Amino acid sequence: DLSAAKDAEFTTFLMAGLIRNYLALLSDHEPTALSGEHRAIKGWITNGFAKRLKRPTREYFGFGLNVAWFWPAINLDMVNGRIGEARRKLEVVEDGFRAFLNTDGSIKDRTTRGNRALWYQYTSIGEVVMTFEMMRAVEMPVDQELETRLHAAVDLFLRANDDYSVIHPWAQQRHQASYDGKNQDWERFSWPDKDFAGSWLHVYPYRYPDHPNTQRLSQKVRWYSRSARMDTDYGFGAGCLYNLAGGRAPG
Predict the structure, then answer these.
(1) Which of 204, 159, 167 is nearest to 185 (CA)?
(2) Engineering a disulfide at 206: which of 53, 202, 213, 242 sits with its beta carbon 3.0 to 4.6 angstroms away?
């Protein structure tokens, strides 16, 4: 990236994903034999990474960069037993979703991103779906109105994926972007196999198996798609676990 600040941010959220991967999947691996390694890693997470991590704030809420740095902070709260703090941060994110998720399925400052509007719609849906999973993990109910708006956002994504003109009313606003009036910078046939922000393609069907969107997704996204097993944005591909839980993968 031409901006050094962007390079630093990108590196930071990649590290946040690696830490999420470790905390979720590796932190209890061979706890006795690898006790020294685990102690060193957790010490670095707590005393190194956590102290350098950007602090999420209500004033600067937005999509991108792990929901404006809320995800890493919430993960650290959860792993350190600060469940009340995690819930408080998730409440802030929930309020932000109410302001950013529109009833027509569009997403503020994302669906309006010109030639990359479809990409930003896709990644933002991923942030919503996986945040809902964090809420469920700390026993927070997911607001039904927000779920309705999520369904509208997924519907808009699917329709726009089939016909780019669907997204034109928002893309033409060119928010921090350029737009040629007809195209999208989007690999129409390979998005189920992207290794970035695709976990939602598998988590969403697990949570909403009877929704019409799920039927449409199932025609495009296979359980063995790359998006199920790799997700750079989240840290690991959550799709394999959810597909297995939902009976989509072979036993």
Answers:
(1) 167
(2) 242
Q: What is the DSSP string of 160-172?
A: HHH-GGGGHHHHT
User: Which tokens is 187 given?
Assistant: 């690999």
Among residues 19, 85, 250, the alpha carbon closest in space to that of 27 is found at: 19
Q: Is residue 200 within 8 Å of 126, Cβ to Cβ?
A: yes
Listed residue (184, 191, 85, 204) closest to 142, CA to CA: 204
Cα 155 from Cα 149, distance rounded (Å): 10
CA distance 150 to 131: 12
d(CA 79, CA 50) in angstroms, rounded, equals 12
The answer to whether 200 and 164 have CB atoms below 8 angstroms apart is: no
What pLDDT does residue 68 have? 94
Q: How much is the pTM?
A: 0.94
Closest CA relative to residue 100, chosen from 140, 153, 137, 136: 153
Q: HSE of 29 in the Cβ direction (CA atoms, 13 Å)?
A: 9
Mean pLDDT of the chain: 93
